[in-house]
Amino acid sequence: MADRVGRATMRDVAALAGVSIKTVSRVVNDEPGVAEPVRERVQEAVTRLDYSHNLGASNLRRAASRSGLIGALLQDVSNSFSAALLRSLEDAARSRGSAILSASLDEEPDRERSLVQDLVTRRVDGLVIMPSTLRQDYLSSEVRAGMPVVFVDREPRGVAADSVSVENREGAQMGTEHLLAQGHRRIACLTDLPEIATAQNRLAGFTQAFAERGLRPDARLTISGLRGAAAAEEAVVQLLDLDRPPTAVFAGRNDLAQGTVRALRRRGLSESVAVVGFDDFPLADLLTPGLTVIRQDVGRIGRLTADLLMARIDGDRSAPHRVIVEPTLVVRGSGEIPPPS
Question: Are 5 and 49 in contact, with CB atoms under 8 Å apart?
Fold first, then answer.
């Protein structure tokens, strides 16, 4: 079976198991009336052939049978990064007469698997995924069968597929070095869940910036596992209550930067504690002071993601592409506040 091209059909399962197509249908739909030895034989054939019921045969992937739908599973479509990325994907899809079916994953692995199953059942022409799962082996049979999949923001693990991501470690190091260059040494670092690759890389970049100056960050000022602006706000308030509070904050996500700004405003320290955030967001330039950020070019990320996906839908079968986009430092004022003399 190693030479098979595309997805196995119900007819293939029936032939391998030595039963009728109707019997296969009963087994995969979990209907009664099939003897247990026959049921086991069919299930074994299903496993050997990577057969997925109701997902469509590979010939449904041909241009003449396309659905005109693309699935986009992002972490939180209310977040400005995901929202801007989704808009970029929508523009690209519309230019080809396609539509986007989108959903938020909220860092829930089971939700990701369920939504992928639902979208593939709906015969989407391709998938864009910002994964919550640590590994994506569960997609292997889909990819082997020809389903175009592009990972965005996070690289795939356990499956060979295209990806578009940002140089997170370099960006975090750049932002931290900017604060160190102002004279700060007590710099707080706020990051997302520690199992998320982007959070890991940004924390690594933060630490590397210190190491290259022969320094070590204060572990008490590094807070991980923060989910959203409210959590970041409370974390920063607690840090400000320390005997030796931070003089600067590196916030590893745009919503964590928002929470940081709120905390500083609550304490009247907006112009006393420096802040650099990873990723921009609307109105960040209108804050007082304006927020210095490590900007991701979301429009470019979306266009590159769409280009890779559309090429796969059009039949590109080359080796997977790994695209890395460089972030940039945008200086606005908050990151240039000096430490107290």
Answer: no
